[in-house]
Design goal:
The complex is a heterodimer.
Chain A: H1 5-14, H2 20-27, H3 31-38, H4 45-55, H5 59-65, H6 74-92, H7 100-115, E1 121-123, H8 135-150
Chain B: H1 3-15, H2 24-33, E1 38-43, E2 49-52, E3 58-63, H3 68-84, H4 88-95, H5 100-125, H6 128-133, H7 137-144, H8 148-158, E4 177-184, E5 187-194, E6 202-205, H9 211-224, H10 227-233, H11 249-256
Parallel strand pairs in B: 1-3
Antiparallel strand pairs in B: 2-3, 4-5, 5-6
The chains are: A mainly alpha, B alpha+beta.
Amino acid sequence: MTRKPEFGRRFRELISGMTQETVADRLGISQASVSRMARDYPPGPKLLSRIIREFGVDEAEWRALSGYEEPESEEDRLTVIATRAMEEVLRRAGLDGPSGAQRLVEGLQALNRKYGRAIPLDLTQGLEESERLTPERAEAILRDLEEQLRAGLI
Amino acid sequence: MNRWVEERVEAIRLALKIVGFPAEADLYRLVDWLEGCIVLRHSPVGIGMCIHRDDGRAVITLPQGVERRELDHILCEEVGHYLLTCGMASLLRQLDPADPQVRRLARVWDWRDEALVREFVHAWYLPSRLVQQFPDDEELAFRSGCSLEVVVRRRAALAGEAVRLIGPPRWSAAREYRLKRQRIGAQPYLQILPRGEARPEFLVPLPDADAREMLLQATADLIALTNREHALKYAPFRCTADEAVNVSLSELEAWSGKGA
């Protein structure tokens, strides 16, 4: 992925006042990844979605800032594919990426900010002990919760 | 053993008229009995969840594509969450996940809630009186359909004790309300009144044929439900506040056709 100075500038503004450790915690990534983004390297699409949800920023604007709205060069396209594949391999090996519980808590906070209310949620086997709570399931739960919020069910 | 959980299950068994081990359908009878309190839905989320709403009701989501026995277990756990917990761990985590003290507190609530719910599931499938009645673990496992491991753990947790209701439990709506019968013309009604008050809060029509049955059911409901649950279940029978009726003569004339 090529450097995007405008992205870096806006990202640094976004996280100003927070430590990189806090940002890394909130996004469920390493400090090195935060540092990389602060040095003008835009994130992969998944991480970008998480930033948009976590910080409640404008989706279209941040996709454009990260270069996802522009026609990609073949090199960019391959870099994105390789990065995604590497993230997936690391995640499966348990070396990187947020756990399901971490992902769910981040998402709940984002929903809390967006809808102005906390969600009292109990999960089968609890949040931290549940073997079923994979990051994918956490994402599915968050989508489901947002549907329920929109429908006024909860 | 948690007396509160055991009492809740005993009272529910009384209201649902379950004498022996619960049959498969009894869990769904429990959900029906909690009508007005629980909204049940299915979703492809892959995990069971219970969301406690501000109005005291709960939305229980069951995962799609899960086998019957496992689904029953998940449903039983989530009903336990509705009856015994309030999603406190999740609320704390949304408060400030960066604070290690809040994180620790959330974890403690999680453990406490899961322990309560596990106990509810065990008490549902292995009621304390039946555990006492069948001293042989293998026979108990065979009759209840539970694994030997669960049976052994349950017996150890009960330590020979069996919980019996000796009156309305302290958390029960029966401590706050009493029942009276009333007849308006030929129609019998059941009044549910807050103790110490003369006006009914709920008025339930009693069909003559089933009057005794409904009276007993209403009494068992009062014992087995908390105030909040009872108010939700009996909401269709709630008496509204008095409203003065003022009809003007001109309205009457218009109504009778005289004003035309």
